[in-house]
Specification:
Elements: E1 2-3, E2 6-7, H1 22-30, H2 39-50, E3 59-65, E4 69-75, E5 78-80, E6 89-90, E7 93-94, H3 96-99, H4 101-107, H5 111-129, E8 133-137, E9 157-159, H6 166-179
Parallel strand pairs: 3-8, 8-9
Antiparallel strand pairs: 1-2, 3-4, 4-5, 6-7
Helix pairs in contact: 2-6
Length: 181
């Protein structure tokens, strides 16, 4: 989680990043002004502007499945930053320790087996937030046809249209809006 340019958590990177002013570090290293945001927040912004959540009113939750589970919460296309929904406690575990796509690979789960874990997790998120749309992305988004149809939620679920590039697109969008627009 990045709060005002400072790393507040470091779940899937070295713990030395916690409380580091990332904005200041990169500004000094590049001798240029920078802006910093969480990768899932960037993906959420991109999907809201150019992808599966474009034009969707209400609450949209973007979940990125990779090494962990990243999340972005949007309301009427506006980002509510710094969610860490992959770290919700579910059955006594960090949700991402059971349902990240890396767990699927490490444990050798089939898409059907893994989608049951994703279903359990997303149903929990659905009960907490009652979103109007889920967008699922991350590295496993390229195989969305193998697992998204297996989900049975009240909330519609769409694969990320920008696939695993959503974070990069969102970062570029943020830089453009921060420095150019």
């Amino acid at each position: 989680m990045i709060q005002h340019g400072v790393a507040r958590t470091a779940a899937n990177v070295d713990k030395s990043w916690i409380d580091t002013d990332v904005d200041a570090v990169f500004t000094k290293a590049t001798a240029a002004d920078v802006t910093v945001l969480n990768d899932a927040d960037a993906a959420g912004l991109a999907e809201a502007r150019y992808g599966a959540a474009q034009g969707v009113d209400g609450v949209v939750i973007v979940l990125t499945y990779g090494t962990g589970i990243g999340s972005a919460l949007l309301h009427n296309g506006i980002l509510v930053p710094n969610t860490e929904l992959g770290h919700l406690q579910l059955d006594g575990h960090d949700a991402e320790k059971r349902a990240a796509s890396s767990v699927k690979d490490i444990e050798g789960l089939s898409y059907k087996q893994w989608s049951k874990r994703v279903q359990h997790y997303m149903a929990h998120v659905e009960r907490l937030f009652t979103p109007d749309l889920f967008v699922v992305g991350g590295g496993v988004s390229k195989a969305a046809d193998r697992w998204v149809p297996l989900l049975d939620l009240r909330t519609p679920v769409k694969p990320a249209e920008l696939l695993n590039n959503a974070g990069i697109v969102g970062a570029a969008l943020t830089a453009y809006e921060h420095f150019v627009a």
